[in-house]
## 1
Amino acid sequence: MQDYRAASLFQPSNLAKAIEQTMDPSSGAAPYLFGSIISIPHTIVARTVAVLGQDFIMVDAQHTPIDAENLVRIIQTINLSSEGKTVAVVRVPSARSDLLTYALDAGAGGIIFPHIDTPEQAAEAVSKCRYAYSDGDRSLAPAVLVPGVTDVAPPGSSHERIADKHIAVIIQIESPLALDNADAIASIPGVSSLMLGVGDLRVAMKLPSRAVDGKDEPILLDAIDRLVGVSRRHRMPLAVVAFKLSAASSAWLKDFQLLLTTADFLCVVKGHREDLARIKGALAEITGGPPDGALRN
């Protein structure tokens, strides 16, 4: 992602171009971008994950209790700690959330909009991320960038036009209605990617929130096939939370270009459980059995 960074790390990297080129083999760009989810809203987490080699990090402001000031700190920590090699992406609660403005002004390279069901809603999401130069209605922040220092732009351009060009708009498809409208949503100018929201789609389809016995239901697989068809017709990159997939789902994973491979919360759970079990097992091997009752849990 370093090749796509803006002239200043306080401005958004060109994630829109990086996403677009995943569908263009002639570009020589990588066909996949890999990301992680931050749901523990702390700069220490952001600083740590930002240097692990992910292409982007999704800051979840939809399901995480995060305020505007902390969101700005986390975005800038990701951009600065990675030196532009990892891009901050924010999932906002909606296109009308106050957090959207702060995320954009802080230098987020992409915005994920959940529960978009219609092309009209997708068009509103794009408009909120664009200035009037690109027919949007984003407000100009007068005290975000330092004139001549962090607002640098090529001759004849400006940081506003750079933002309009660079910021990726990612639309989550999470309902049968959204699937019905996916072709129309993909046709909206400024939409960079469609993101399959597997969990909410399962719930909206009245399926269990998780696959039973690791196998996705035929009705869900059919829905995924429909979305892949939209992607092919419109050359529209697809995103998905890959670590939730079952083994039976791996066949269609190749058709998704933005893959979220980890999440801080789940990594903490997994790491603690595995390390605890490893130490218990080592002690049991050394002592010939659990040394105390606590190890029997």
## 2
Amino acid sequence: MARLYCTSKLESASVICLIGLTLALLMQVSQAQTTPQDFLAPHNAARANVSVGPMTWNTTVAAYAMAYANQRVADCNLTLSGGPYGENLATSTSSNVFVGDAVKLWVSTKIFYDYKSNSCIGGNCGTYTQVVWRNSTDLGCASVTCSNGGTFVICSYYPPGNIVGERPY
């Protein structure tokens, strides 16, 4: 079993969610080749659930994500890039994690989002709100196997979301 952890970049602060999720039910065969659709499909499904339009794959944003993922190969640390895009990160202790599992983890933080107050209650929800941020239209993601055998996943969003005081949808 693997444990997956995530982090999200907010407009005014970085919030790290140390949500450990046992992936016994989510584990799938190791990805031989990851496609943009592997990232887009779970993002767009979550967005459709709140009537937000789909994202499109952006090769420039994806190249940025890949370059940053390659910087994390040695340590697999959940360290935000500090770059120009919105960002969700995940890392796993296993190399068998399908990239969709990371997106599922980010979306699972929806339980902490209270639309009425536009705030997270009882936990971090910034990864969820970035996934469904209505103004984020372009997506670029990457996944690498780290030196420790784990997996590092990054999705970058343009324009960035999680702007303080604004609602995601």
## 3
Amino acid sequence: MPPVALVESTNASYHPSYTPMAIFVGATSGVGQAMAEALARQTNGRAHIIIIGRSASAASKILAGFPKPPDEDGSWKHEFVACDATSLRNVRAVCDALKSRLTRLNYLVMTAGGPDANSFTSAGETEEGVNKHLVMRYFMRYLFTQDLVPLLLSAKEQGQQAHAMCVQGAGFGARIRTDDLGLHNAVRRSWKLLNGKVMPSVAAIKGMITGVTYNDGLVAYFATKHPIITFTHIHPGQVLTPGGTNVDLGWLFAPLAWIMKRVRMRIALEQDERAKYMLYALLDQATDRGGIYIRGECGDIVSAHGFDSDFKSLFDDLETATLSSKYGVLQGIPMKGYGGSDASVAGLIRYTNEVLAGILKN
């Protein structure tokens, strides 16, 4: 775990020669909000920061609090882009609009969750037929990453940092299992009468855990496909916000939920405190060469690997490649805290592309 003094001094030393361009998906509350605010403060507002979320009113208050540079040289901008990320069609439309007007992207940070994605009691599917936990915890993150990678590559080609970060539950190494990838069977088998009322839903818990481990697959896939870009899956720890500490286990387990909430409140940090560690990991110049990083709640590196710029990914041909089924290993490299195998990641990506093709075909 890096000392707090090192984290703070490293963040304070960030003074890029260019105006950084950052997109924060889900920054109208929680650690995403705090990260955007911290970057704005560190750059004295001289950054192009885009907050993507659902609440325009919350975003307006956040952006109003950003420091504003005295000059009007046009190199900085603070803006909000509305997007209900539970709809993958909405995500695609937002990405298309961004690519039409942006020339580069230094930081893509995805923290969005929402009440459905964090519910222990409710399990279901969106209007597009995607599991409500997985759409926010995984699918929208995959689509934002896939569609905005060209902007990250453009920044890297200009000699700038290029970093995509998934803030989820990194480092636990839960396995990516390729049976029932969309959790449709888990939802169908759940006792719908109990959902949201009596007790936790097994399908909901599976959705939360599965969404976390799919992020390992996300960063592994893109890191090997684009080795000059940095891809990070990081654990934010317990964050002292209503969404970060509230626990709803249904009325049957209400006493246990009360105990869990009190415990979480004791170990949680204010979102500004958590954000300093997340920002430390995001801006870390030691990761500039690209690669995959699995990080803990204090920005500490659980495992990492960089790839040569001419690295040939085994995922280049998902249909014909012969891939290892050994978990915790990425293309021959043991990765502590990593839950994928080459075969399971390939299966996940194939399934993801099928889902996206079905939804975005029109």
